[in-house]
Write a structure and sequence with these properties.
Layout (H helix, E strand, L loop, with lengths): L9 E7 L7 H12 L3 E7 L4 H10 L4 E4 L13 E2 L1 H6 L4 E4 L4 E4 L2 H11 L8 E5 L3 H12 L4 E6 L2 H15 L4 E5 L11 E5 L17 H4 L2 E6 L8 H8 L3 E3 L2 H16 L5 H15 L4
Parallel strand pairs: 1-2, 1-3, 4-6, 7-8, 7-10, 8-9, 10-11, 11-12
Antiparallel strand pairs: 3-5, 5-6
Helix pairs in contact: 1-9, 1-10, 4-9, 5-6, 9-10
Length: 291
């Protein structure tokens, strides 16, 4: 953290409800300290009036903000402009100040992509199973379409939601290799060695024993599992995958990289890999993760 807040200190923050649990101040204030940037990042709890919150932040000179639940889509009508990929996803998590208002970006999905690459996992040409059909699963499916996965199976308890995502991806990207299925129909997925993205909230602390699926036959289809949840360190979903011989990763690096990408957008810089590694160590300590 900078030694003293002064008249040149830039203000950043995250808006959402709730935001008391957020790890974003740890990421961004550590980044600022490592990069020698005179900025402070704080949480802004916004209980309902997102329109006034955005207008007020701009009036007060807030340079950049992150957006978390429940406002990732609700914020869009109040922005001056929006990045094309964020528009396709229909969700924004990063606001960059421009002359007349904020421009919206989505760094969650490129953050996921960089996290996967850091573990040696590629999407392009890979066969992928996405578990869930909520906002995170939808965005992950778009990422798979942009990166030209070989095929993407969308599994959800309510298959109609997966069908809607499939239809929207075809309409907006032209990518057609998306197969929606009910969660119980996983046995229709041929072969094994898939990259499995767990994109539901099942297993999120404190409900650590929850898992969207527990059948060993499902996990035998997995070569690598990436759970978008970052706490606990090992979800039940990850444990079940490892028991069947698959590699499994938690989502802390996704959280890290989406923050790094937001910082880079705000400050028009590239964060060096050694700085990213240092921030990750601080983040692991804060989350109680030991690897």
């Amino acid at each position: 953290m900078i030694s003293m807040i002064n008249g040149k200190t830039e203000l950043m923050g995250v808006i959402g409800n709730p935001v008391t649990h957020t790890m974003s101040p740890t990421i961004h204030n550590t980044l600022a300290a490592c990069m020698g940037k005179n900025m402070v990042y704080v949480p802004f709890p916004v209980k309902e009036d997102i329109s006034n919150a955005i207008a007020g932040a701009f009036a007060l000179g807030v340079v950049g903000m992150n957006v978390t639940v429940p406002y990732k889509s609700a914020v869009i009508p109040h922005l001056k402009s929006i990045d094309s990929k964020a528009e396709q996803i229909g969700a924004v998590n990063t606001l960059v100040r421009t002359e007349n208002g904020y421009k919206g970006y989505n760094t969650d999905m490129p953050g996921l992509y960089r996290a996967l690459l850091s573990e040696g996992i590629e999407i392009s040409g890979n066969r992928i199973i996405i578990v869930g059909a909520g906002g995170a699963a939808r965005a992950a499916a778009f990422l798979c379409a942009w990166k030209q996965a070989k095929e993407v199976y969308l599994l959800n308890r309510t298959p109609q939601k997966a069908v809607r995502i499939r239809d929207e991806i075809i309409e907006k990207t032209g990518f057609t290799n998306v197969i929606p299925l009910a969660l119980c129909e996983y046995d229709k997925i041929p072969g094994e060695g898939y990259l499995v993205l767990q994109a539901t909230k099942a297993g999120l602390y404190p409900h650590v024993e929850e898992t969207p699926i527990s059948e060993p036959n499902f996990f035998q289809k997995a070569g690598v599992v990436y759970d978008l949840i970052y706490t606990p360190q090992e979800t039940t979903f990850m444990r079940l995958a490892r028991e069947q011989g698959a590699k499994a990763y938690h989502g802390l690096k996704m959280l890290l990289y989406q923050g790094v990408l937001a910082y880079e957008l705000w400050n028009n810089v590239t964060v060096p890999e050694d700085v990213i590694a240092s921030v990750y160590e601080v983040l692991k300590k804060e989350c109680g993760i030991h690897e």
